Amino acid sequence: MSDEKKSLIYSRLRAVLEELHLDNFTDYYHYLINDKTGQAAIRFIDKVTTNHTFFMRETDHFDCFRDKVLPYIEQTFNYDLRLWCAGCSSGEESYTIKFIVEDYFRNSKVKWNTEILATDISTQVLDKAVHGVYPNDSVNTLPQEWRKRYFEKFDADHSAVKQEIRNGITYRKFNLMEENFPFKRPFQVIFCRNVMIYFDNQTRDTLVKKFYNVTEPGGYLFIGHSESLNHTDTKYKYVLPALYRKEKGL
Prior knowledge:
Blueprint: H1 3-20, H2 25-34, H3 39-48, H4 59-76, E1 83-86, H5 92-104, E2 116-120, H6 123-131, E3 133-135, H7 136-139, H8 144-150, E4 151-155, E5 158-161, H9 163-166, E6 169-173, E7 187-191, H10 201-213, E8 215-222, E9 237-240, E10 243-245
Parallel strand pairs: 1-2, 1-7, 2-6, 7-8
Antiparallel strand pairs: 3-5, 4-5, 8-10, 9-10
Helix pairs in contact: 4-5
């Protein structure tokens, strides 16, 4: 771990140690492993995870998703969209995806299953995502049509994603470090953007292999523009910057 990351984690946990009246991180470690309620671990995860996100982050990804990926899914699969937003943070990414899906399948929505799975390890950000309430300054960056169609007033300073849209996303707590992914059916699209940047190379390569195993042949993986895959190790094929595909027949 780099000195910069160590310093970041130290600063985030220092206040927790002071609140618990613990003298050092060794004592904190023993506190964590001896807590049987699980609440200490949840708080630890919420403190050390980085959750920086906003609507329409890396816009070209969403353009490609709308113009290239969704037409392929519509032509290839039988009214069943299977999409996973991994590391969804506070929901801005998953809702952006959902807005695009709603727009695209508007005329055939009754036929298509367009529910999205969104996961994160942090219960704190998942709670925010489930409620779907955001500052107006953030929402106002979105197209006016989306603001009218998919949001409603929450209070003077906030807007809320409408209930019918929130109902179309299943939010779940999930640790990407789980040895096996429990999904029964593969995904046509996986978004995991700006998550692997915090992992070492071995952890990243292991995670990418697990993503590959739960990707439908012909399906796509979106990662962040600041991230890259090990081209000599992965079976995914490069499509565009930060976009990869599992070839058919594999």
